[in-house]
Amino acid sequence: MSRNEAVDVCIIGAGASGLVAAKELSEAGLSVVILERGPWRQRSDFAPEDEISTKRRHFFWPTVEREPRTWRLNAQSPTEFLSADVQVFSNAMCVGGGTVHYSGLSWRFHESDFRVKSTDGSVAGTSIEDWPISYEDMEPYYEKAEWTIGISGKGWSNPFDPPRRRDYPVPPVARNSAGAILENGCRALGLHPFPTPMAILSRSYDGRPGCVNKGFCSGYGCPVGAKSSALEALLPKALATGRCDIRPLVMAREISVDSGGRAAGVVYIDSAGTEQFQSARLILLAAGGVETPRLLLLSKSSRFPEGVGNSSGLVGKNLMLHAPGPIVIAIFPEAVDGHQGSPCTRVMQDFYKTDSRRGFIRGGFVHPRAHGGDPVDYALQPVHGARWGLKHKDSMRESWRHYLHSHCTGESLPVESNMVDLDPEVKDRFGLPVARITYTSHENDIRLGSFLAKRSREIFEAVKASKVIVPPSRLRKLHNHQMGTCRMGNSPGSSVVDKWCRSHDMPNLFIIDASVFVTSGGLNPALTIEANAFRVCDYIVSEARRGNLG
Amino acid sequence: MVLNSHQRATIEAAAARIIPADHDPGALEAGVIDYIEQTLATYDGDHAQSYFDGVRELDELARRQFAAEEFSSLGPEQQDRILRLLEEKASPFFSLLVRHTMEGFYGDPRHGGNKDRAGWTMLGFPGPSYPKGYSSPLGWYDGHLPDDFASPKKRSDHEPE
Predict the structure, then answer these.
(1) Distance from CA of A290 to the nearest CA of B (A)
(2) ipTM over 0.90
(3) What is the 3-state secondary structure (H, E, C) of A72-111?
(4) CA nearest to B133 within chain A
């Protein structure tokens, strides 16, 4: 094993949280190494609007052959390999992580999202808790994230939004027809539409150009550079310090521990297959809600037989993947032309708060979106009345310019038996046990998902859709929103990290991705991941300045 | 070439039933077979054997059902009946054929299919718009329904600062 020169900070995972930390800590004068399993791709590598090379051939998403994972419904049911179509609901393995291909919906969680137990009480079968931090603690960091990363939107246009002190740095992206349909459908029903806060620049900002409305955003890298990914908005700043070294195509295998019980460094396998050791004063784990607990569980030693940071036994538990809402398809008499514009330009949050009359707690939102373009994906959807032949061709010809689909994103409640652990049989190409996902959506999540699907139908019918298709909810096996597997809390017995996302067991180990979420919110998590990483980094820098980092 | 001439003719005939020609071109005219050849030679190399087996199965069914020499010599209705048999028994080869035919008809021509943008022209998709993109209004509804938030109707400045 070859040993690298020791650094202040080793970050595992170059996604949303990892690159926030790389920027913040290198700018504060610390030396940083980032380890990333995937490749480092640039703006010029993103084939514009090519569905085959980007989506069909898994340009971003891990393939089942190369990065297998397994799933089972519960501990009694058989385990299966996740299939290629489920892996698509995973996150990119590349520098920038999921932010490179995300749609970019950039939410602040609401005040109640941080105190679900106080707001809604306990629910049978769940492990609901309050977060050890509040919206007030997060507010300055949401603002910092919006302005640093470059979020477009219209402040105070959403009557349900939590309080904010400052508007977005750039105005909303141009509305498209999916947005016009949502806006007018909501108005007709007395709901409150507003421009979606998006990590897509509407005009030039911070040295990057504004959006040209070319479509093909969700699932694609942006060749324009208008999408505010961690790759575009954060990494260049980290690299400009000269103190940040990024190592793509390396696989972290173990967090090793010294004789005093502190994290000593990271063992990783480089792109040539050679084992390397990176010593660091601080380890920041930012590999996402599935791979973060996997690495902790892989880091077994005589001192930590259940894995590093796992004295609570909760590493990997309480996985949350958001409610399994169906993807509703609506067809309109006039052209929607979903290949034009941003993925989501108007949205509403009228169904976000708990309403006890609905038969479930918490809520979510409906986001009708232009499809973005993908004709192959649409051709393969089971909505044409025939899979092939002239009838299928007719359906494609008549409806491709006229359809949109609507996602229903809702909160999923934490359930301790929903988890990530190590598969006892299946190994990856490095010989390491793969992540096994055990997941059954709680009844509350299922009800919420169907509720949002019904609301979608009403909105589209209010704008005279010629056809609304609500497919049955899919079984949730994996999703790109992966949260909860190293929850944050004040008590070492019932949480993995403290309110500063520092391991209860190991003072120089921090976990900064969505693994630390206590509850899931009913909103896309990226901005909350980033804001929380900014918050944690502020703490780390102040501790470092006080000499408290050892 | 991954497929021999008989295999190629058989798959070409089957794909032409998945997306038949009418007043618009079908899979045959759009050169879907060239997409399939190309993907089997590159990304989908693992699937070549499924095609070899699939061709044998199509010919076998043609013999059994219609006492014909081979699938490609059957008429369209008979070919459809055989493909429907495969669909009904949830044949993985049939699913692969449907998937590849859609990819070859509706995907980017740079991958070998969608000749003369036949699939895109039929849909009304003008092809990749980068770097130009689109200006508002974006679709009929954006142009015709009220916009309470009055997003700028002129495309924003997208040149770097």
Answers:
(1) 27
(2) yes
(3) ECCCCCCCEECCHHHHCCCCCCCCCHHHHCCCCECCCCCH
(4) A214
pLDDT of the residue at B151: 53
* Long-range Cβ contacts of B119-124 (<8 Å, 24+ apart): B119/A375, B119/B30, B120/A375, B121/B24, B122/A393, B122/A396, B122/A397, B122/B24, B122/B25, B123/A375, B123/A396, B123/A397, B123/A400, B123/A401, B124/A335, B124/A400, B124/A401
How many beta-carbon contacts under 8 Å exist across A and B? 211
Say if CB A474 and CB A326 are below 8 A apart: yes
Q: What is the pLDDT, as a whole number, of residue B156?
A: 45
What pTM does this model have?
Answer: 0.96
Residue recorded with tokens 């699937």 = B47
Average pLDDT for A67-77: 96
d(C-alpha A451, C-alpha A361), whole Å: 12
In the numeric block, which tokens belong to residue A137? 């603690």
Q: Is there a contact between B133 and A379 if contact means CB atoms under 8 Å apart?
A: no
Q: Which residue of B has its CA nearest to A215?
A: B133
Question: B107 and A204 in contact by Cβ < 8 A?
Answer: no
Q: Is A354 on the interface with B (CB under 8 A)?
A: no
- As a whole-number percent, the residues of chain A with pLDDT over 70 amount to 100
| Residue A502 CB-half CA count within 13 A | 15
User: Whole-number mean pLDDT of chain A?
Assistant: 96
Tell me which residues of chain A, numbers 218 to 247, contact chain B at a CB-CB cutoff of 8 Å.
223-224, 226
Among residues 66-105 of chain B, which lie with CB inside 8 Å of chain A? 80, 83, 87, 98-99, 101-103, 105
- B154 pLDDT above the threshold of 80: no
